[in-house]
Amino acid sequence: EPEVTQTPSHQVTQMGQEVILRCVPISNHLYFYWYRQILGQKVEFLVSFYNNEISEKSEIFDDQFSVERPDGSNFTLKIRSTKLEDSAMYFCASITGGPTDTQYFGPGTRLTVL
Amino acid sequence: AQTVTQSQPEMSVQEAETVTLSCTYDTSESDYYLFWYKQPPSRQMILVIRQEAYKQQNATENRFSVNFQKAAKSFSLKISDSQLGDAAMYFCAYRIFDNYGQNFVFGPGTRLSVLP
Q1: What is the pLDDT of residue A104?
Q2: CB-CB neighbors (< 8 A) of A94 in chain B
Q3: Which domain holds residue A24?
Q4: Domain count, chain B
Q5: How does pLDDT run across A40-73, given as a tens digit for each residue?
């Protein structure tokens, strides 16, 4: 069965550094999402992406965040200057966009900001 | 505001017994979909069951079933014959269609423990 993949599985970085989290959505999917989950808390929507542009973003997704689909397969989340509170699991998800579709989640990247 | 509430932060069940996880949501939309996702210790989010709001019949997937009460905006998950592998965080979520595509809203989760 096709699946969403994410790399790396764990990223450790120093506060103020830039990080790029990578995702490879399922190949025929059209909508892409990033979510984050701070340890012990609920899954929070960050951003959705369709047709090579952001379609919706939450208040969490400020100017420090950006997303890109550079080559038609990868979908990246960049955090320009990480803060301690950015430490979380980051999940990528994708969906074809049909009315009966279900989001498929990647395994997540654990980001630790020191 | 669109919200999902799971009033039980933690639940436990004996192996082979039945447990029900509650979920309520708030939306003004008439067309939406409801989901239960399971997140085991591996942290990957796995779809458990899905319900279309326009369908009156409750969804069932093997040992998992839902009680969907649209008027009450309630969407509970029943796990029958609980197994040790069912131990996980369970998130209720709904999906709406807006002008920009789609959006998912997740509840805070219920941690389910299965006791041998």
Answers
A1: 86
A2: none
A3: 5-113
A4: 1
A5: 788 888 998 888 889 888 889 999 999 999 887 8
**CA of A42 vs chain B CAs: smallest distance (Å):** 4
Minimal Cα–Cα distance from A36 to chain B, Å? 11
Which residues span the domain enclosing B48? 3-115
Which of A14, A48, A40, A89 is closest to B44 using CA atoms?
A: A89
> Which CATH number characterizes residue A47's domain?
2.60.40.10
Number of structural domains, chain A? 1
B8 neighbors B90 (Cβ within 8 angstroms): no
Chain A residues with CB inside 8 Å of B38's CB?
none
Check residue B97 and give its pLDDT: 65
The number of CA neighbours under 13 Å toward the Cβ of A28 is 4
